[in-house]
From TrEMBL:
PROSITE patterns, alphabetized: TONB_DEPENDENT_REC_2, TONB_DEPENDENT_REC_3
Keyword list, A-Z: Cell outer membrane, Ion transport, Iron, Iron transport, Membrane, Receptor, Signal, TonB box, Transmembrane, Transmembrane beta strand, Transport
Family indicated by similarity: Belongs to the TonB-dependent receptor family.
Endpoints of the signal sequence: 1-23
Main location, first listed in the record: membrane
Localization per record: Cell outer membrane
Mode of membrane association: Multi-pass membrane protein
Organism: Pseudodesulfovibrio sediminis
Name of the molecule in the record: TonB-dependent receptor
Domain TonB-dependent receptor-like beta-barrel positions: 232-658
Amino acid sequence: MKLFKLGLLVFTYTMLIALPIQAADSEPEQDTNKDLIMEEVTVTASKREGTLKDFPGNISVMDNIFMETRGVNDLGNLMRYTPNIYIKNTSSGSSIVCRGISTIDTSLFSPMGLYVDDVPYPMGYMTNQNLFDVERVEVLRGPQATLYGRNSESGVTNIVLKEPDNEQHNKVLLETGTYRTARLGFASSGPITEDLLFYRIALQGYTTNGYNENILDGDEDVTGEKTFDGRGTLRWTPTRDWDIFLNIDGANRDKGISALRYTDGPNATDRYKVTSNENDKAYEHELGQSAKIKHSWSNVELLSITSHRTFDREHHLDSDRTATALGYSDLDTEMDSWNQEFRLISTDKSALSWLLGLNGRYEAIDAGIDMTHVLPALTSTRSGDSEDVGYAGFGQATYEIVQGLRLTGGLRLDVSHNNGKQTYTPNTGAVSYTKDVDATEWLPMLSLAYDVNPHITAYSTVSKGFLAGGFNFYSATDEDSFAYDAEHVTNYEMGIKTNWLDNTLSFNTTIFYMDITDKQVREEVPGGATGVWKFTNAAETHTAGIELDGRYRPIPELQFIAGFGYADSVVDNWETEVGGTPVDYSGNKVPWAPEFTYNLGVEYTHKSGFFANADLLGTGEQYFDAANELKEDGYQTINLRTGYQTDNIELSVWCSNLFDEAYAVKQVSTAAGYTLQEDGAPRTFGFTINWRF
């Protein structure tokens, strides 16, 4: 609570200094240079077009110009520019951590929702999407259960794609870099029949050797990656009232995953030097189809979104990470997901705006892992599957009580039935079990926003969310260790959104407190073998903090950006056993939750076309285990980019992690007490061409 009180003080102070500045600035001078004014950003995060101040919560928006200027090609790198957002991207999986709400390391699902053009991407493995040919990315913090089809516990990342229209657009991307890295992309969109039928296509290939070397055979491609992904859209507008989109997308990824190395003990190696006697590989295949049908009346819009996604990941991994052939694991996970959503939205400009939605889903998962070891007692197989059927009704309405004062309320009813089964086969014989995980959730939200003047908006919000329960496919041994229930969060936040100095400076502040009950955690199975875990709802935690972000353009050619997020994620109550000994983790930090994130950047563009930008990106300390024994102290990297651009072409050279900062993205303790670590990316250089025609 000390941090929350400090945040409240900062919030109040910001409000007090903003008022007199805006009062003095309420009547701008007539000769203000219009080139200085930052354009108001249009967002669709609330499922209708609006501006940042219209959304009753903290939201970050980064458009395609922002991404191209900084050479951001995937979601993981983009999130470093957003306060209190961190993408855990490791060989064991990915997840988006928002405001310190993380999840179990091997969980299949992320507490933060991810959508691409209104289509949900539910699995954590899908998190680090490429961002080629993207219009913008909207990041919403806090539960969004009353706006989006699928529930999200900590927030939503909404990737908005460009809609094809009568304008012909073509783009080619060519990029080369160190570690034999190359990226080639092509995008094209335009009319097939003017005013009636349009197309958009985007294709991208990516290859790299990666930066790790296997010291056993000198192989420098053990964390290499070869990826090809594509997306196609047909848009049909038979009348002014109908807008129909048919989409297909897919990706094939061949990924080296030999990233873990020992930092201590007899098998310790230096940074980026790994040891493996297996061909560590992961193969991912992803395919999606969707149909969006929109019909508009004078004051109402009806939208239907039908989507289907399949995902398959297989991996083979040296599980002991030594030169001796002791053991390896083979994993196979497949998902087949169907989602149907209907949304009815008001479109008039009256004092009352509203949204009503229905969502249904069917999700089937087949998951198995084989552990092979020279010791028969450590050899086992697990094969399981689950079927999840869920329905939800949700709605949200905003009423302008008086001019500038808006009250927003919403409610979601979410019902789900998830049935799972598994067969576990150790050397002593097979054991089969089945379990149901059912849930009915009522999730309300309430927000009050006030436009103090045209330049300042203050708001406060209370909302609820949850992270669904599921199944422990990779380490369960019986029914008790197989299933776990949902965790729940209540979010409280207050914020102000401001623009100063004739709209050349914007500054936003948010403070929040999130109370998490029934926290999903990993615990030892009493008497179980090495690596046998169960997932339970044994912990109570909270996270409190502050988020600051701003932009300033003192002259048309120069712009500064800055952001800071602090999230104090603490275990309030968690008592368990480790090795048969009672342990109390209360007061510890929540694993996989960085204490803070920050970014500071400057961008200069000369009228001749030459440009340069520099960004400082920082991540605070985080722990990788419940005992808080495995720790990354925090790190910061500097990225530089310079080049020349016209309306049609951009040529740039760049450097990421200029000073070759060393840091860990994952640590795990072995049964022998040694530490395995995955290293973060080193210094890299490259050259990029963006050609638009």
